[in-house]
Amino acid sequence: MISIGSSLRSLEHFSIEVLAGILKPAWICEAAQAATRPTQRDRKLPAHLVVWILVAMGLYRSLSIHNVVDRVGNLLGLPSLWKSAPTGAAVVEARDRLGFRALRLLLERFQSWLLEQFREAMSWKGMLLLALDGTTFKTADSSQNRKCFGLPGVSRGNRSAFPHLRGLFLASARCRFILGAWFSPYRRGEITMALRILEAIPRGAMLLLDRRYLAWEFLWGHLARGGHFLVRVPQHIRRRRLKRLGTGDWLVEITTDRKLRRRRRHLPRKMIFRELTARIRGKWYCYLSSLLDPERYSASDLVGLYAERWQIETGLDELKTHQGGATTVNRPVLLRSQSPRRVLQEAYGLLIAYNVVRTIMGEAADTKLRDPLHLSFTDSLELIRQAAVVMALARTEELPALYGTLLSRIASRHLPRRHRRNPREVCIKMSSYAKKWKCA
């Protein structure tokens, strides 16, 4: 798991070898230097090493933080990074000294690189095809987390058992990379967050949106920046049909609310969109799009394209359930830290590790000319964890061959996808046990 570079085993040259080909060590040093003040003191846990540890925490979610540090610094068969391993208190102090800005900067740098390297693979008809959606993360029930993030309402009992961190994510619908991530307390809604991050959405991107993002202020703001959208709408939304373009395909005029225009004077009184209706498995669905040209963007293409919005749902499931190891019943807490700053560190580290795994899967798919979405994420994650140990024990000249073997093994985990349905259903609805309060 550790890059030694021949016999060198110094803190200055530390990296996780299986990840270092994608997550450049120079990025980590730059992010650590930008987020911390320079110091002349020799520390057991310098800033760049703490960043690597936090990324490793995102990769090894089933391990305790102490065991992650032990695996990073005391791998069996190699001399230790330290004469005496840092204590738990020293790790907490090092994390507090680092803060979460270094992880956020590293994630943003990584996301920019992904946009440069994979723009063509992530595009549809010359536009970046992105999906925007949100989710929540359960955090440890501490007084600090509860005060910062807040508790959701519940239908049983007087309060929720765990504070919730809300996250908003911009993901590629073609590769499942997380290209934007923003966090807030639970009480802040997704639309409020979306309005604040409009400038961060790449210009000219095509957004696939759920019904909750049917907010004219947000949609018009995205259009003003040269973007387009496809959003599902309920049937009761008032619109006036202007022209029939084809079967289930209309140009419609929508009048914005007067009260909204008083608050947001830049909004027009009337907006023209394209309405698409389709019957899928016996149920009628309705969509609105800003792509008005029926010759270039056919109705059937757009309805089929909207199905790719589910890729962000699958990606969040991979992130929370498979990589994070979080399930509603057995392990409800995904982010284990007791303070908000360390919670955000964990969250950013989890996203960085997820993007690295997805990038390695993309490289593996290219070796066999396969779709990266048809490779097993769970198997790939486990193979990368195994390769981390093997590559740490290997000589430098052996690393390219070992990495090639890793890519070949990941590419062999091909899953032929059948036509799937994704109903909003769960196996276990709730528990009848009495509620246990972790923090009074």
Describe the structure.
The protein has 440 residues and is an alpha+beta fold. The chain contains 15 helices and ten strands. Strands 1, 2, 3, 4, 5, 6, 7, 8, 9 and 10 form a ten-stranded mixed sheet that branches. It is globular, with a radius of gyration of 24 Å. The two termini are 41 Å apart.
Characterize this entry briefly.
Helix content is 40%, strand content 16%.
Tell me the layout of helices and strands.
Blueprint: H1 17-20, H2 25-35, H3 47-59, H4 65-73, H5 88-98, H6 101-117, E1 123-124, E2 127-138, H7 143-149, E3 164-172, E4 178-185, H8 190-196, E5 206-209, H9 216-224, E6 228-232, E7 240-246, E8 249-255, H10 258-263, E9 270-280, E10 283-289, H11 299-306, H12 310-323, H13 340-367, H14 377-393, H15 399-411
Parallel strand pairs: 2-5, 5-6
Antiparallel strand pairs: 1-2, 2-3, 3-4, 6-10, 7-8, 8-9, 9-10
Query: How would you classify the quaternary structure?
Result: single chain
Q: What are the secondary-structure elements, in order, as H or E?
A: HHHHHHEEHEEHEHEEEHEEHHHHH
Number of helices: 15
C-alpha Rg (nearest Å): 24 Å
Strand count, sense and barrel status of the largest sheet are: 10 strands, mixed
Distance between the termini: 41 Å
Q: Give the class from helix and strand content and strand pairing.
A: alpha+beta
Salient structural properties:
440 residues, 40% helix, 16% strand, alpha+beta, single chain, disordered N terminus
